[in-house]
Amino acid sequence: DIVRGKDLYLGYDDEEKKQRDELENNLKRIFQEIYNNLNDAHVQEHYKDDVKGTKNYYKLRNAWWELNRETVWKAITCGAGQNDKYFRNTCNGGEQTKGYCRCNGDKPGDDKTSGGKADQVPTYFDYVPQFLR
């Protein structure tokens, strides 16, 4: 949501608001650089409305997220070390979901989960409004 510019990270104090503004400015700068490096005139034309006005690049940010969301999820989860507690014990039995990761070259439909559903990463919550998550 933050990448796509749809997050409700409003902040509660001046320090949080300052950090939010800094993050948003960095994202604008990064996506402006991506836009400037687009080599195809047709693609630049498609995203030109993002350049007008506020230069938030929301359309480009959304497209980037659609393209990279699964890779970002893998980087977060597969890069977790032995002592990192990204995966926590489940509420059903207190055990972790060991062996149900897409880190070892597993492919959709041919992974360690029953039914091959390991491609269903939590990023599918992207389109659920934040207040309902």
Automatic annotation (TrEMBL):
A GO molecular-function descriptor: host cell surface receptor binding
Source organism, top-level taxon: Eukaryota
InterPro entries: Duffy-ag-bd_sf (IPR042202), Duffy-antigen-binding (IPR008602)
Pfam family for this entry, one: Duffy_binding
One GO cellular component term: membrane
Duffy-antigen binding domain sequence ranges: 1-133
Protein name (Swiss-Prot/TrEMBL): Erythrocyte membrane protein 1
Species of origin: Plasmodium falciparum
Gene it is expressed from: var
